[in-house]
Amino acid sequence: MPASYSNSNGFLDFIGKRCKRIFPGLIVCSFIMVFIIGALFSAVEILTYVFSLEQVKTFIMFSAFVGRPFPTVFSDFIYPNAINGSLWTLPVEFLCYLIIGVFLSCHNSWKSILLLLCIAIAARVTLSLTTYDFSFYGVPMSYLSMFGIAFSFSALTKASWMPYRAYIFFVSLLMIGLMRGKLEILVIGLISIAIITIVIGVSVNESLVSGRLDISYGI
To answer: What end-to-end distance do the CA atoms of the chain give, in Å?
Structure first.
């Protein structure tokens, strides 16, 4: 994210790039979910379903991060009336982009990201100790703090670390193995998983995907 911000012309350009990465795919995905999959698997007659204003509303809501159940669609599943449940992560992810963009706008330096990491850790610890949580626009603060730890720590990654990535990788595995408490897992565990993910990502060299596709949004 800091590299992307440095290659952008300020905050609005940075967020514009994030919007281009998310919303075109989300809108197409929402259309397929609502008007194709929903129409085929709904218990309601197809034409009645497709031309209902409720489905237009559902399409708009999913395209704007606010999903809702699909009555009579997959209603006998373990998690009923849902087509693509993993979309719940997108509003949390987009809010993390906004927060990182604001911090980098104030001071485009690793120090801003370090401050953001400390805030995310403090929020995660506080929410865990108080067992208090609240949501805004479908974003639970507990999950935002967890995403914040992973996002901000990953943004601190430097190329100078790479020669030592094997050592860092095994230390991270060791930390995960030694952790026992829930709070340790939610903070140190998240950082360790972020390190392991980064090390694996930068250690794989291939020619099929590199420079052509970004597979992170599909995995």
So the answer is: 18
**Average pLDDT in the chain:** 83
Radius of gyration of the chain (CA): 20
Greater confidence, 136 or 37? 37
Bridge partner list, 139: 136
3-state secondary structure of 219: coil
| In contact, 115 and 28? CB cutoff 8 Å | no
Q: What is the largest CA-CA distance in the chain?
A: 61
Residue 21: burial class (beta carbons within 10 Å; 0-12, 13-18, 19+): middle
Structure confidence at residue 51 as a pLDDT band (50, 70, 90): confident
Type of residue at 10: G
CB atoms within 10 A of CB 43: 9
In degrees and rounded to multiples of 5, residue 206 shows phi and psi of -150, 160
pLDDT confidence band for 59 (50 / 70 / 90):
very high
Q: Residue 44: phi, psi to the nearest 5? A: -80, 145
Query: Is there a contact between 133 and 141 (Cβ–Cβ < 8 Å)?
Result: yes
**Percent of the chain beyond pLDDT 70?**
92
Tally of CB atoms within 10 A around 192: 23
